[in-house]
């Protein structure tokens, strides 16, 4: 297998880094550990800062509701709730009702108001080939 020139350069640089770290660890271990702690602390601080900035930006765009899509969604939910809201039942009275008033109430319930009819789902009639079927059965 033939190795490219760039991979050989990378191996040489990694080798020099390992030799340098080893020499610093042998000659001055206190400075080495102090240097490592500074680098790790800096990386943690940078990561925490980046995390908080990204979560704040993400929170604004989706959870905060400032996005136009989120506003449209909330408006659609509000309209849907208004359209399909259930009327609250009146508390039942314990008085006895006559038979005539019961039949009147049931007749009133059976009639649908104009408002209820306007909320009916929009249905579409699909015309099929009804004539073919009738001719074939004759």
Q: Segments where pLDDT lies below 50 for 5+ residues?
A: none
Q: Let me know the average pLDDT.
A: 77
- Strand residue content: under 5%
How widely separated are the two ends? 83 Å
Secondary-structure element pattern, one letter each: HHHHHH
Number of helices: 6
* Percentage of residues in helical conformation: over 70%
Any idea what the radius of gyration is? 39 Å
Number of strands: 0
Fold and architecture overview:
Residues 61-138 are annotated as: Disordered. Keywords: Membrane, Transmembrane, Transmembrane helix. The protein is mainly α. It has helices at 5-27, 29-63, 68-83, 99-110, 114-118, 130-137. It has a domain at 29-54. It is elongated, with a radius of gyration of 39 Å. The model has no long low-confidence stretch (mean pLDDT 77).
List the helices and strands and how they pair.
Elements: H1 5-27, H2 29-63, H3 68-83, H4 99-110, H5 114-118, H6 130-137
Helix pairs in contact: 1-2
Keywords: Membrane, Transmembrane, Transmembrane helix
Transmembrane segments: 7-26, 32-54
Region (Disordered): 61-138
Keywords:
138 residues; mainly alpha; 6 helices
